[in-house]
Design goal:
Elements: H1 16-21, E1 26-29, E2 37-43, E3 49-55
Antiparallel strand pairs: 1-2, 2-3
């Protein structure tokens, strides 16, 4: 058994085409753009706000 645990998503992310075809609002957030982080939010049908982060390579 290793001491490091890998993170794995619980569900597979839906394709971008699904998001656009179902008029799901994507909220862009530029607050961390100067740190090289792209961030946006989605609200799911249960009222949860989902945050997505991507660290951009320099």
């Amino acid at each position: 058994m290793t001491t490091q645990t890998l993170s794995r998503p619980l569900v597979t992310l839906m394709p971008v085409t699904y998001i656009h075809h179902n008029n799901i609002q994507v909220i862009d957030d530029k607050a961390r753009a100067d740190e090289g982080v792209r961030r946006f939010y989605l609200n799911d049908s249960f009222g949860n706000r989902l945050k997505f982060l991507e660290w951009l390579s320099s």
